[in-house]
Predict the structure.
Amino acid sequence: MRFRLLLLALGAFAVGTDSMVMAGILGLVARDLDVSVPAAGQMVTVFALAYALLAPVLATAAARWPRRRLLLAALAFFTVANALSAVAPTYGLLLAARVLAAAGAALYTPTANAVATSLVPPERRGRALATVMGGMTVATALGVPLGTYIGRTDWRLTMWLVVALGVLACAGQAVFLRELPAPAATLTLRRRLAPLRDRRVVGAAATTFAFFLAINAVYVYLATAVEGATGGDADRLSAVLLVTGVASVAGSWLGGRAVDRLGAGPVLLVAGLAAAVAFTALPWLGRTMPGAMAYAVVGPLAGWAIGVALPHRLASIDPPSAPLLISLNSSALYLGIAAGGGTGSAAIALLGERWFPLAGTVLALAATGLAVATAGSGRAGRPAPATVAARAPQADTAGARGVG
């Protein structure tokens, strides 16, 4: 059983690497395709926006498909789309390929989560989800710096790495994932969106959007923010991203335990303020390698603690509907990532390449204020002990592929 979950996690690792590694190769893409770095950053925007919009639609459209066939189709589509990205001769075709890759990712990740929960008894579903979505977290710690290093002279090599990961995951699942449980009862798209009529849900989802708008306005252009330290050297940037990835794993782990002990509200307040401080210091920290490394620790620790607390808070509104609410949290998260790319681009245009992280400061403070103002959106107390609803949100946070 554990091996089957690890196969699902391998697919999540490929998806996570694809969606997060762009931050390390934007400069190379911009030079190769003769566009600006902010324009290249729109690859992140279109991927995230396509994911957010397509996830509920594709999940509904393919709800009756056998789970194994759906997993393989999603991975195959995702892999082919990344191959198209690797050979795209123009900026426009590259953006189109990113939309196709997002469609495959949006179909794979929810399906992998659903399969994971069907393979284990109810009391182990949280751990199963954590195993599968742990592939996304490991992508931050390993896949992103590896992809950045491989593509240090040619960004297309990075895309071929993602293709190889997709092929490996697809082949492994084709051979070893057999006799999966049939799909559960399906929900219509209207039923999936019904919780949006609840003000508490809207407030919590808006908080998720606001935080990831703030975080990703900086993260997408992290290579630009620390260029003073790296001097444009890909090896130095890979080192910064490696530390960022390790801190992301630590932030997720520590954030989950803090939420269990203190509740989501205090974690959002403390981590939101810590993120604002980190963004404020980045124009100075980004000038030297020790400073860049300091940010690479503090920023992701705060960002991934936020990433744990947000879905937990939303799911606590109605624990029996936690899976549905978490899916809405994911859509809000990806909308924030999509908007973050454009916002960071605008901040660079207005404030310059050194000072644009200050826009993240303002946005992080606004998001923290919104979290406090809408604190009644969830249960104010500590989470209910050892429930699936309480555990599932932590697993979902690994899908927050831009935090830090």
